[in-house]
Design brief:
The protein is α+β, with helices and mostly antiparallel strands. It has helices at residues 10-27, 76-92, and strands at residues 31-39, 42-50, 53-63, 102-111, 117-123. The longest helix has 18 residues, at 10-27. The relative contact order is 0.19.
Length: 130
Amino acid sequence: MTKTRPKDGRKQLGAWGERIAADHLQAKGYQILQRNWRCARGEIDLVAQAGAELVFVEVKTRRGRAMGTPEEGLTPHKARKLLQLVQYYFHENDLDADEMDWRIDLVAVELDAHGKFLRCEHIPNLALGW
């Protein structure tokens, strides 16, 4: 897992966090199927497979705590949007959500205010409370 400091800028930080998250999940045995899956309504950061289960992954990366923790970045509005995007994913890929095991996970990536890597935490089944 490359933990070198990302370049300045929000987009670069997000892309770096997604690479860290993908590496972290692969080290846990997940297969990354797609990165940055896009449709007209938005984007799913990572689509992975864990055994027979399809896993949709939201990655939140934060440098410092001025904007809160990465977990706090996943608002109820964003959670609802993610559920809609998952439905679009199933529709566009001719898959039946009722016939598959699937879930939505969060990977929180955090750096301190100076850009030093602090943690990468995988939180499975986050969507259950939504």
